Amino acid sequence: MGNANAKPRMNYYRSNTNREKPSEYMDLIEKYLLLVPHITQYNSDSADLLQPTLWHSDLHLYNIYVDLNTETITDIIDWQHTTVAPLILQAKVPRMIQHPNPLPLGWVMPEKPEGYESLPEKERLKADKLFESALCQKYYEVLTAKRNPRHYAAIRHNDTWKPPLVQPIRAIPGAWRSREVFRLRASLMAVADHWLDLNSAVDCPISFTEEEKKLHNEEMENRDYVERLMAEFQDAGILPADGTVDPEDCEIAQKTNYMQKEKFMSLAESEEQREWMDKIWPYQDRPEEA
């Protein structure tokens, strides 16, 4: 059915010339189905984490209203995508307080970088911002462990290779439609790489060729490059995170976006690379078939 409805399309993170094919996605689905019997097994101590749970799936600062006088939450909006699903599929740190880089779970608190006092002022300000961001996520972790231990237990479970493994399950729904084939492939590759950690009695039922791994790693490098660049723009206040702006700032943001895209493309070392950089710039409209 996927082959009948989906059409080959460009994925510029992967190639500037070759189209991403629905058949590649179907191959990943076949691999996923081979893994399902193994990654969905669970012991009785995990049963509580599988209970259906009502969850707001998109908590960010624009969805939460706070009374500035009492510093209490008065409203939470955008409930239209609320879901009821097993807790381990829902559990995560809300993106409004997620640190840009993964933080290990546990009680080790973040520290400022070595040599902080000798850094130039601009670098110290950047270090301060990252330190505050890490502290914010750690504070959320501590409060969650204290006030919502089931949620924290689910977060900790998902940080291990103990079944049920949620990443492939999270990644597969609508992966083609939402342009998340890379994420699905990455989750399956991770399971294959950590198969021994699952303590399974059978060999891993899936594998990837060296060529598939090479193409995936190249795409990952391209994605990481763009994400790092966007993070720099956002840290500098040049472009907003997620492209979200207030209506009154929209025109200014559009002009800033255009200028930063031109600056980004000026780094190209060839016309071919410039064309590629034009295609992967994230803040732009794209044709449906692209």
SS content category: mainly alpha
Number of strands: 6
Q: How do the strands of the widest beta sheet line up side by side?
A: 1-2
**Helix and strand run:** HEEHEEEEHHHHHHHH
- Tally of contiguous helical segments: 10
| Helix coverage percent | 40-55%
Strand count, sense and barrel status of the largest sheet are: 2 strands, antiparallel
User: What is the C-alpha radius of gyration, as a whole number of Å?
Assistant: 22 Å
Mean pLDDT: 90
Question: Which percent band covers the strand fraction?
Answer: 5-15%
Task: Name the shape in a single word.
Answer: globular
Distance between the termini: 21 Å
Low-pLDDT residue spans: none
Could you explain the architecture of this structure?
The mean pLDDT is 90. The two termini are 21 Å apart. The chain has helices spanning 2-5, 22-39, 87-90, 121-147, 149-157, 166-171, 181-193, 210-235, 250-265, 271-280, and strands at 9-10, 19-20, 52-55, 64-67, 72-76, 83-86. It has a domain at 213-280. Helices cover 46% and strands 7% of the residues. The chain is mostly helical. It has a two-stranded antiparallel sheet with strand order 1-2. The chain has a two-stranded antiparallel sheet with strand order 3-6. It has a two-stranded antiparallel sheet with strand order 4-5. This is Aminoglycoside phosphotransferase domain-containing protein. It comes from Aspergillus fumigatiaffinis. InterPro entries: Kinase-like_dom_sf, Mito_inheritance_9.
